[in-house]
Amino acid sequence: MALTKKGEFWYGTTSGDTQAELRSYSIENRHEATRFAASKCDCGCRTFALQTDEEAGVAIRTCTDCGQEHLMGDSAEHVEGAAPETHECLCENEVFELMSGVSVHQGTHDVRWYYIACHCVECKLVAVFADWPCEAGDAAAFLAKV
Ligand SMILES: [Zn+2]
Ligand SMILES: [Zn+2]
Predict the structure, then answer these.
(1) Assign residue 92 a region: left if phi > 0, alpha if psi is -120 to 50, beta otherwise?
(2) CA of residue 108 to ligand 1 center, whole Å
(3) Which residues, at least 6 apart from 131, have a Cβ–Cβ distance to it below 8 Å?
């Protein structure tokens, strides 16, 4: 596993690369992500279209295989009135593997900040596409729903 840099962007090959990029982004954001989970559809597929509304705190992934839409983490609680927008890679592809990460309040297991990193299935770009402050309670329960 290795991240390579082209211009100001990073490209990777494995979910470990995606996790590494998410972590370094979170450190710059001063809320270091310490727990991670990769998204997987109920059908077993791991590639998705992603829509988010960072202001509302909403992320929706749509499986590229079976088409199931899923509200990630605690998004269901914030979706009313939200206006999620579809993410597109620099290469214009809209299909990604998704890695979620959270930071927690110090000394607790409670979510403090939520990050979503994408790995483009076409050009292999790795980047955090969305993040927001998030008070969603238990991190394990939250990450079980990404
Ligand atoms: Zn599916
Ligand atoms: Zn791409």
Answers:
(1) left
(2) 33
(3) 25, 26, 29, 54, 113, 114, 115, 116
| Tens-digit pLDDT profile for residues 31-41 | 999 999 999 99
Amino acid at 124: K
Place of tokens 């729903």: 145
Tokens 């597109």 locate to 88
**Could you tell me how far CA 95 lies from the centroid of its own chain?**
13
Cα–Cα distance measured from residue 99 to residue 122, given in angstroms and rounded to the nearest whole number: 17
Distance 96 CA to ligand 2 centre (A): 8
Cα of 94 vs centre of ligand 2, distance in Å, is 8
pLDDT 10s digits, 126-135: 999 999 999 9
Average pLDDT over residues 81-85: 97
pTM value surpassing 0.90 = yes
Q: What are the residues whose beta carbon lies below 5 Å from ligand 2 (ion)?
A: 89, 91, 93, 120, 122-123, 125
Give me the percent of the chain exceeding a pLDDT of 90: 95
Ligand nearest to the CA of 65: 1
